[in-house]
Amino acid sequence: MKRRIFAPEHDAFRATVRSFLDREVLPHYEQWEKDGIVSRDAWSAAGKQGLLGLAVPEEYGGGGTPDFRHSAVLAEEFTRAGAPGLALGLHNDIIGPYLTGLGTEEQKRRWLPGFCDGSLITAIAMTEPGAGSDLQGIRTHAEDRGDHWLLNGSKTFISNGILADLVVVVARTTPQGGAHGLSLLVVERGTEGFERGRNLDKIGQKAQDTAELFFHDVRVPKGNLLGELNGAFGHLMTNLAQERLSIAVSAIAAAEHLLEITTRYVKEREAFGRPLARLQHIRFETAEMATECAVTRAFLDRCIEDHADGELDAVHASMAKWWATELQKRVADRCLQLHGGYGYMSEHPIARAYTDGRIQTIYGGTTEIMKEIIGRSLLG
After folding, report:
1. CA-based end-to-end distance of the chain
2. Model's pTM, two decimal places?
3. CA-CA distances (angstroms) from residue 75 to 3, 175, 293, 302, 303?
4. If we measure between CA atoms, which residue out of 227, 233, 250, 202 comes closest to residue 71?
5. Average pLDDT taken over every residue of the chain
6. Most exposed among 8, 60, 300, 301, judged by the fewest C-beta atoms under 10 Å?
């Protein structure tokens, strides 16, 4: 079905993104995976190409284009290229809104130009060893010491954790913490007491640095409080819909791309003297996946359109996130099976997509959390 949500400027942007991938990402990606981290040069190149800070106002060095469809194009093309390691979506769509929506004028002028030119890479630190989706369990805390906050605690599974120059930390700023006692504190590279642990060894997304972070008596200036004191819970809830939609967009793009690869493969691969595509089982498998992708795509495009118009709510974002990511997981598994032994080889794109995509049903809120949000909205 022809997609109807994109205009000529989005198509032109898609061509720009593909050119950037061919020139600045794909020739280096294998080395990045071996290194376990992306080169900072790639971030600078993305900034020069105008791929960072798409929604940031032009006065701060951004693209001044808040239309989420540009972000959707970026997510789709990076997914189809099999290059999740350069986490532009995390930077643009998840952390960017906190800086632009909550930052003071001084903070915006201090941080956003580097955010947009690639010299300032960002991360957000929520997850802790004992607290994942449950923000009530956060133990990292900050004491008010007059002219600064004294931050102590640790975080784990932090994407961009090694590269990040600026980390938005969720911390307790009241003894009880919880929904009304959390704040967002910005910790900058080089701050005394801020240390990075291991670059964690994951089963997929090898090029994307994911780290442990440690804060020991870190003095955070009062000017680095982002948003309202004790207002982090509300700030986080406001931005989660876009985060979950971004993950869903990459999920359906991955499923569609895997189906394209597999369709070509079964037409060429022979078994028992004829192409696999001649077998009824293969045709049924392909038909089922194609139908599930088409139905999901229709819903996701509607969500993208609604979000671009400022109308997407948390419930429908949660529906999009859990459904599309679970579909991605199913399609990856079925496509790998149809490739047989070749699908199990690490150098094959199907194998890489299988491991790279497995995290999708976990980060940004697990499938179970998404169902809980939807269920509560229906049943109270």
Report:
1. 37
2. 0.95
3. 16, 39, 17, 16, 15
4. 250
5. 96
6. 8
pLDDT tens-digit series, residues 33-80: 999 999 999 999 999 999 999 999 999 999 999 999 999 999 999 999
Q: b or e along 275-304 (b: 16 or more beta carbons within 10 Å of the residue's beta carbon)?
A: ebbeeeebeebbeebeebbeebbebbbebb
The pLDDT value given to residue 178: 80
DSSP 180-225: TSEEEEEEETT-TTEEEEEE---SS-TTS-EEEEEEEEEEEEGGGE
| 77 counts as catalytic | no
What tokens appear for 63 in the block? 């693209």
The pair of structure tokens assigned to 228 is 């309202």
Helix (H, G, I), strand (E, B) or coil at 64: coil
Burial (CB < 10 A; 0-12, 13-18, 19+), residue 111, is buried
- What distance in Å separates the CA atoms of residue 114 and residue 53, rounded to the nearest whole number? 10
> Residue 15: enclosing H or E segment and its boundaries?
helix 8-20
Tokens of 245: 């939609």
**% residues pLDDT > 70 (the chain):** 100
Q: How far apart are CA 154 and CA 129, in angstroms?
A: 8
| Active-site residue (options: 33, 76, 128, 243) | 243
